[in-house]
Design a protein that fits this description.
The protein is α/β, with parallel strands linked by helices. Helix content is about 45%, strand content about 10%. The chain is globular and about 60 Å long.
Length: about 350
């Protein structure tokens, strides 16, 4: 055998050995790393907090404790992560109906619901009491923050009421652009204020900011508002992205916390078109809830083809989308963020 062939053979054997070692490592549950996921958010993330307090959403129609027809993205992510990270803990502080900023309407109607500020306070209290493992060389504590859609929903309802009142009084209604900028500014400020409070406490190693969910896709948003909501979501995402990039250095150096921006809402938007088999109905939900999902209603009508639908009700996607979001959308992004979730967790079958 020639020297060239010998070298090639040795290189092939080395590459094969390296791949075998990496594959074995990927398939073996991690025992050297502790991973704590801390979740803050609203009904997309809540997997039982509101249900324990209020018994809603109605489990006659909804999967118990979830605002959909089955497990939500938290359940799917937890199930996957715990299979590959031996010492994994998930702490969920999300509440259905929660807003990024304090909301007097919600506080009056359903005072048990914790907005982002109160969710953050609850987490920090648990951390101070020693109920949450502290970040260390072998322990990553990662906070995932996903909230803001209910702020938009509330503002839209208030805006519509103000416009109707102005029309009835034959006066000028509120300026949409001014209202939109004010709303976006408040959401960004509230989210970053909460993130800074957590970082300053030293209770986490990483904070991941998820974009506003693509609310404009929801059947609940009237056709005449979809363009404005799309523009508003994009504006909020842009402001969050810019602020996250601006503050990342300060968080890392002064607060010893890595701040990550998970990208704008477009990647969530596109997920609805990449699911297999594809959704046959992306327009109409499986059920239409005429009142707030936080009210227990017994006379709802369910569809018979929920597996073909993108939305379960007029706001919340089906469990099929939650699974696709968790494993094909969020998890690969978490793996791309240094020190958040080990790449061995998902393997290639989950990477897009």
């Amino acid at each position: 055998m020639s020297r060239c062939r010998t070298s090639t053979a040795r290189l092939s054997l080395a590459l094969f050995a390296a791949l075998a070692i990496n594959s074995a490592f990927a398939l073996r549950p991690a025992s050297d790393t502790n991973l704590v996921l801390v979740l803050e958010g609203d009904s997309l993330t809540d997997n039982g907090n509101v249900f324990k307090l209020l018994g809603v959403p109605n489990s006659k129609f909804y999967f118990p404790g979830r605002f959909t027809n089955g497990p939500n993205w938290v359940d799917y992510l937890t199930d996957t992560v715990t299979k590959f990270v031996k010492n994994a803990t998930v702490l969920n502080y999300a509440y259905g109906g929660a807003t990024a900023c304090a909301n007097s309407e919600t506080a009056t109607a359903v005072p048990v619901i914790k907005d982002l500020g109160n969710q953050t306070a609850a987490f920090l209290a648990d951390a101070a009491a020693g109920k949450v493992p502290k970040p260390s060389a072998d322990t990553r504590v990662v906070l995932i923050q996903w909230v803001g859609s209910n702020d938009i929903d509330s503002a839209l309802r208030q805006l519509a009421a103000a416009q109707a009142a102005a029309a009835a009084a034959n006066t000028t209604g509120p300026d949409l652009q001014t209202a939109g900028i004010a709303l976006a500014t408040s959401i960004v400020t509230c989210r970053l204020t909460a993130a800074q409070a957590v970082a300053a406490s030293g209770a986490v190693s990483d904070i991941v900011l998820l974009p506003i969910s693509p609310l404009y896709q929801a059947p609940a948003v009237p056709a005449e508002f979809k363009a404005a909501v799309t523009q508003l979501v994009g504006f909020i995402d842009g402001a969050l992205s810019a602020q996250a990039k601006s503050l990342a250095g300060t968080f890392s150096s002064a607060l010893k916390t890595r701040l990550h921006w998970a990208g704008d809402s477009s990647w969530i938007d596109k997920l609805s078109t990449t699911i297999v088999p594809p959704f046959k109905n992306t327009t109409y939900p499986c059920l239409w809830n005429p009142r707030s999902v936080l009210e227990k209603i017994d006379n709802l009508t369910l569809c018979t083809d929920v597996e073909d639908r993108y939305f379960f009700d007029q706001i919340h996607p089906t469990t099929r989308f939650h699974k696709h979001f968790a494993l094909k959308g969020l998890l690969p992004r978490l793996q791309q963020l240094k020190g958040v979730v080990p790449r061995r967790v998902a393997l290639n079958r989950f990477i897009v």
